[in-house]
C-alpha cells in the first residue's frame, strides 16, 4: 500500500476541541493544540494527567469523544504510516535471541510485503536508521548484549525505519543516567533538523536545555515556548515545587 501524501504546509499536530474519557472522569478536556512541522516538543505533567493518552490520540489508537484531530493534515489512522513511535515500555523479551538489525527491521512492518523475507530496501533503510543513531557497527550483535542507552537508540532507529515525518517518543530517557540522557537528547536535537519530534518526559531539568516548545498536560493542555515556562506554572500543574533548569544556569548546577 502506498504511503499517504503529506502536505508540507499542514501542521504536524492539530487538535481542535478534543475531549476523551476512559469511562470515568475526563482524561483530556477541550484540547486545542497546533504544533508546526519541525518543532521539537516536550509534553510534561503529573502522572495520570493525560500525556500518554495524548500520544495515543495522535496515533489513532483511540478516538476522541469530541473534537477533531489532524496529523500532518490527515486523520490519525491515515497518517500513521508517516509517524514513528517509540512506546514507554518496549515489549521485547531480552531472552529472545534477536539481533539489533532484526529489532530495527520491525519498523518496516506496514511498509514492506506482508509475507516472505524482508526486501533489500528494507535492510538498507534499517541500516541507514542505525547509522543515524550511531550504531551501524553493532547491527549483528544480540539486542540483549547492549547497554540501556544503546537499546534506547536502537528503539529510536526502529521508529526511524518507517521513514517518518513525525517522531513520537514516550519517556525515551526513562531509567538512564544523566550522561546517557544528555547524549540521547543531543541525538534527538540532531534528528529535529529534518523531523518533527514530540516527546513525553518527566525530566524537567532537561526541558529548557533542549526543547523549543513545552506542552503542559493536566486534563487541560497549554502550550508554551520553552523560555516562557516558569517555576510557578510548573508548580501549579504538579501541585508542588518542581526543580526547573533554565538556559542561564550553568550545566554544573543540575540536580
Overview of this structure, please?
- 29% of the residues lie in helices and 22% in strands.
- With 255 residues, the chain is α/β, with parallel strands linked by helices.
- It has a domain of 162 residues: Rossmann fold.
- The strands form two sheets. It has a six-stranded mixed β-sheet, sandwiched between helices. Strands 2-1-4 form a three-stranded antiparallel β-sheet, with helices on one face.
- A hairpin with a 4-residue loop joins strand 1 and strand 2.
- It is globular, with a radius of gyration of 18 Å.
- The C terminus is likely disordered.
Compact overview of the structure:
With 255 residues, the chain is α/β, with parallel strands linked by helices.
List the keywords.
alpha/beta; 29% helix; 8 helices; Rossmann fold; 6-stranded mixed sheet; 255 residues; 3-stranded antiparallel sheet; single chain; disordered C terminus
Amino acid at each position: 500500500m502506498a504511503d499517504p501524501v503529506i502536505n508540507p504546509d499542514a501542521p504536524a499536530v492539530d487538535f481542535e476541541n478534543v475531549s476523551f474519557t476512559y469511562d470515568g472522569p475526563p482524561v483530556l478536556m477541550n484540547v486545542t493544540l497546533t504544533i508546526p512541522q519541525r518543532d521539537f516538543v516536550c509534553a510534561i505533567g503529573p502522572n495520570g494527567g493525560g500525556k500518554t493518552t495524548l500520544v495515543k490520540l495522535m496515533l489513532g489508537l483511540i478516538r476522541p469523544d469530541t473534537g477533531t484531530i489532524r496529523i500532518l493534515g490527515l486523520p490519525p489512522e491515515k497518517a500513521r504510516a508517516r509517524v514513528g513511535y517509540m512506546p514507554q515500555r518496549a515489549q521485547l523479551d531480552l531472552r529472545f535471541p534477536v539481533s539489533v538489525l532484526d529489532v530495527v527491521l520491525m519498523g518496516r512492518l506496514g511498509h514492506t510485503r506482508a509475507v516472505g523475507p524482508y526486501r533489500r530496501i528494507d535492510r538498507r533503510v534499517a541500516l541507514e536508521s542505525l547509522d543515524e543513531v550511531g550504531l551501524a557497527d553493532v547491527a549483528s550483535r544480540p539486542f540483549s548484549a547492549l547497554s540501556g542507552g544503546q537499546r534506547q537508540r536502537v528503539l529510536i532507529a526502529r521508529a526511524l525505519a518507517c521513514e517518518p515525518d513525525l517522531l513520537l517518543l514516550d519517556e525515551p530517557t526513562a531509567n538512564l543516567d544523566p550522561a546517557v540522557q544528555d547524549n540521547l537528547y543531543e541525538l534527538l536535537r540532531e534528528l529535529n533538523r529534518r523531523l518533527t519530534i514530540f516527546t513525553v518526559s518527566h525530566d524537567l531539568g532537561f526541558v529548557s536545555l533542549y526543547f523549543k516548545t513545552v506542552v503542559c498536560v493536566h486534563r487541560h493542555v497549554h502550550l508554551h515556548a520553552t523560555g516562557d515556562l516558569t517555576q510557578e506554572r510548573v508548580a501549579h500543574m504538579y501541585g508542588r515545587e518542581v526543580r526547573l533548569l533554565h538556559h542561564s544556569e550553568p550545566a554544573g548546577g543540575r540536580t
